Amino acid sequence: MDFIRMVAKSPDTPVMILGETGTGKELIARAVHARSPVFQGPFIPVNCSAFPDELMESELFGYEPGAFSGASRQGKKGVIEEADKGTLFLDEVADLSPAGQAKLLRFLGSGEFYKIGGTRKYTVKTRVVSATNKKIDHLVETGKFRKDLYFRLCVVKADIPALNERKEDIIPLAKHFLNEFNHKFSKSLKA
After folding, report:
1. 3-state secondary structure of 106
2. For residue 41, what pLDDT is reported?
3. Backbone angles phi, psi at 123, to 5 degrees
4. What is the mean pLDDT of the chain?
5. d(CA 77, CA 61)
6. In the chain, what are the helix, strand and coil shares in percent, each to the nearest 5?
7. Which residue from 36, 59, 39 is spatially nearest to 49, judged by alpha carbons?
8. Which of 38, 64, 76, 144 is packed most tightly, with the most Cβ within 10 A?
9. Residue 95: how many CB atoms within 10 A of its CB?
């Protein structure tokens, strides 16, 4: 929590959270947002592995009306625009395609982007927190993840150990979940 409080103070510093599935990477990202000067802005999570390559650009940057066949008449805001004055959480960022990585890198460098089919330049100010359960250092070494993007996203890095490496957290977590489920199911089980 001391680390989170320290990192949260600088709302324009990108943070990369590394750890196995289930270690609480999104909870840490939310805690960074909640303790930052942009806490009143939106927290926008996006799972980078949930979208096929051909949809990722429109999810990130949005599109103008009629940008492609099947595009809505109103156009669409992307998650980057939605995260303006808040925090954009890029979960599973290591799953971005090379094209997606290049477009994200350009945005991170300038804070500017164009919607698909658009000519108007948009500028947003958002904190970017990213996370992955993959060995990103290895992906960078093997050329599967852009080194320049890695350095932009990983200004501050947080390695979250698995629960079996922090046994002192088991009892407090068990008590937390017991209280949560007691409340949820109107029970009064004791630890």
Report:
1. helix
2. 95
3. -125, 130
4. 90
5. 7
6. 40, 20, 40
7. 59
8. 38
9. 18
